[in-house]
Amino acid sequence: MSDHELPPGVVEVQPELALSCEAKLNVRPDGPFSPEELELFARLRRERPAVFERLRRRSDALDDAIAAYDRERRIPWTVPRMVYRDGADIPRREFLYGHAYARGFVTANIGDGGVGKSIHLIAELLAMASGKNLLGIVPRERVRVSYWNGDDPYVELERRVHAVCEHYGIDLATLIDEGWLYLAARDAHPLCVASAARFGPDINQDAANDIEAFIRAHNIGVAAFDPLKSLHRVPENSNTDMDVIGDVFNVIAERTHAAIALAHHIRKPAFGQNEATIADARGATALINKVRLSRVFNVMTQQLAIAAHIQEEDRRRYFRVDSGKANIAPPGQATWFKIIPVACQNGEDTPTVVAWKYPNAFDQVTPDHVNRIRTIAATGKYRKDSRAEDWIGKPVAEMLHLDLDDEADRKQVSKILKTWFANRVLTTKEGQDDNRVKRDFVVPGNWADAEQAAPTPERDVLHSDGGGIAFMLTRKVKVQLREQRGLTDKQIFNLTPQQAIDILNNGRTVTKWGVTFTVLGPADPDATCLYCKSAEPDTTGGVVNTNHGTLHEECAAAWISNQDKAR
Fold first, then answer.
1. Tens of pLDDT, residues 428-483
2. Is 168:132 a contact under the CB 8 Å cutoff?
3. Over 194-263, what HEC string results?
4. What is the pTM of this model?
5. CA-based nearest residue to 264, from 227, 306, 312
6. What 3-state DSSP class applies to 347?
7. Fewest CB within 10 angstroms: 87, 230, 277, 531, which?
8. Same domain, yes or no, for 107 and 245?
9. Which domain holds residue 126?
10. Within a domain: 178
């Protein structure tokens, strides 16, 4: 497209139209107006509403004539009968990055200032612009992205973008040359879509039209605006005003078939409130009710920091992102991120974000630990009560190199024991202590090894109600799950017996971002992923055989979606 061409769907408005309308109004401010003149005024209202509004206020006759013009052409409102079409022909929602962004919809990212919303958003945009997995999510489509910031100067945005690119090895120069990234700030490109007026918000239709034209002209897939408060001058506590702001961006998203991202702050937390929810978004609730997708950003709490052995001075470097509202997507699991400094080429450290996993109580636990604690419990000398001198938690802590004087370590031991007792790895039995007083002592639970059972999946597991870790699976089943289906110890860890049987019989069913596929087993060592063309393991492991070919699990959803589109 040349510089003088307009994008599809954008009608060029010649300056002569406004001048012609103004000239006609100067000649006959009190009317009457011919049908041809009213057509011109109606066109001006559609294409340059701000100019038309200025002329309308000058002439009551024009106001009355346009009202009559509208009445004559009014189409009565009705609800038509639904038109049937086959369900298979209905287009699928086009998610671009997990369930965070979707074409034609607005996403609100909500959190307190300084949590990490902006640098996280920039990293996500660069992931989509480069098509790379930067934060644990493989973009389902590589798209052109734009980022406008109303709080910081352009040079600060440059620092943040360079920090992401230098940390993750992205060729920023090529990204820019090929038109994948567009960047603007308030200093050179101020933007306001609405301002307060006497009888309600005054929409800056010119600004809305400019945003729409820009997205169309550059084929933008995700347009991000950060923060929302810098985009308007209307009272945030007014539901009426904020409802209009939501409509402006919903219309832009629908017309351009792009995803819109809005960064929004939260209100002042209530006394004693440690974490924000979707209900804590600043101002009126109308805006949040308008958007179809939203996420909430929270800094790690003091309690979680203690449990994860993170010092108080480092706590604010960790934040969690939760699904706040997902009208068009299933609820997502919370994900953790860490803010790290990047030593950039200008000699200065600039923060960016990396994916981070909150520690699990069973991260250190192995099957050998289970067998050892059962052997220790078989002596019948240990108690379940943590207040007892011979508490069973003491040998557990010794095995796992944990310090019971440390609050976090003690909680971890208690959580492990709670699971073991629930799964009957351990149980209690009445006995007598050294003083012949009856006490409940810890002994091995009803967890027998079924190695000698017949070699069928149904006979090779000990059935239970499930829950917790896979202590009811025999060694033989675990070997089969590893060798035949390619499961890792971590994946086996939480399987119930019935799930293990289903996987051995049918393969492992995986659903990612609304796409379901079956993992049949590990691929050949030199097999490459059909999507990313790499044979190297990713965050989920190596390349596996699926019912759609050899793929990484993280790449499978994007590959299957692209194949569906091609068909």
1. 998 887 788 888 899 998 865 433 223 333 333 333 333 334 445 667 777 878 77
2. yes
3. EEEECCEEEECHHHHHHHHHHHHHHCEEEEEEECHHHHEECCCCCHHHHHHHHHHHHHHHHHHCCEEEEE
4. 0.70
5. 227
6. coil
7. 87
8. yes
9. 95-297
10. yes
